[in-house]
Amino acid sequence: MNSTVNGSSGSWSCLNFSALKIGGTVTYCLIIIVSLVANSLIVILVCKTPNLKKTINYFIANMALSDLLYPIFLIPWDLSDLHTNSFLIGGPLGQAFQNLILIAVDRFGAVVFPLRSPLIRSKVRPFFILATWIVAVAVSSPRLFANELVESPEGTWCVTRRKKAFGESLSYASFVLAYSSLFIYIPVLLLVTLYSIIVIKLKTQAHPGEQSANSQQQRDRRNRNVLQTSIAIVTVFVFCWFPYSINFLIILYQDTLTHLSCSFWISYEVSIYMANAYCAINPVICFMFSSNYRKALKRLIKCAFVQA
Q: Mind listing the pLDDT tens digit for each residue in 69-94?
């Protein structure tokens, strides 16, 4: 998802740009710090902790790697745009949602078909992880052809020439609508369906026999803990990205921006920060909801102090 809003100062006149720059700078700096530290820890813990070397955790680590692109490349760019009154947001949105779907499929197989081999086996797991990056890069590639560096008296600017990338037959608004449907709206419906089936299955499972019941209850408890983490990640993703995607589509399908209300621009500005904040919130959720990640982090910290 990528957007630029400039050249419409009249419709932005209700915003206090001085306060916006100060608050935005502080917010972005906080997001950068939390995202860099938390996502790096997720990747390190999955690589170093034996009991975290499971399919779902590899997908979470893969998502953490994509989230690291925000504080390293994208948010510094947003900070620069913030101080030039031009707003841009972009990132590996498709990659993140592909991981969420893979996590849901993995949980679906573990809960609904517990006696069968995993739906996503360890041998094919690297190919799925690689595929998430290939698809994300391929879908985002039109922007490589749309962006150009333009010299002006004020300096060098990155200008998006949308007709160059999309031609006359496909509008940029149609591309964004298709992109949002493919990587947000349709996947959300799929995720809701999968997790609904999982929840129903956990509530209706029978436990024949005392010993098998005990082992089944332990497995159910583990599945519920993992399920809580997965659902929390999906919920926060929707909460962070839905407002921005809807607001941006509203902007794209307007003939002129001057008639949009001040409250809309405020909500749009807030939605930009919410979307960017996901890269910092996502890893924090893993530590909040997963005792395995918390225990692994404690062991890592203890090990670091002992070696020091």
A: 889 888 887 777 776 654 444 555 56
Q: In 10 A of CB 188, how many CB atoms?
A: 17
* Contact (Cβ atoms closer than 8 angstroms) between residue 36 and residue 192: no
CA distance 248 to 112: 38
CB 71 within 8 A of CB 122: no
d(CA 162, CA 145): 9
Instruction: Identify whether the C-beta of residue 252 lies closer than 8 Å to the C-beta of residue 172.
Output: yes
Residue 6 — very low, low, confident or very high, per pLDDT cuts 50/70/90?
very low
Identity of the residue numbered 117: S
| Calpha distance 257→101 (Å, rounded) | 36
Count of beta carbons in the 10 Å neighbourhood of residue 91: 23
CA angle 138, 172, 99 (to 5 degrees): 35
If DSSP states are collapsed to H, E and C, what string results for 169-225? CCCHHHHHHHHHHHHHHHHHHHHHHHHHHHHHHHHHCCCCCHHHHHHHHHHHHHHHH
* Burial status of residue 192 (CB atoms within 10 A of its CB: 0-12, 13-18, 19 or more): middle
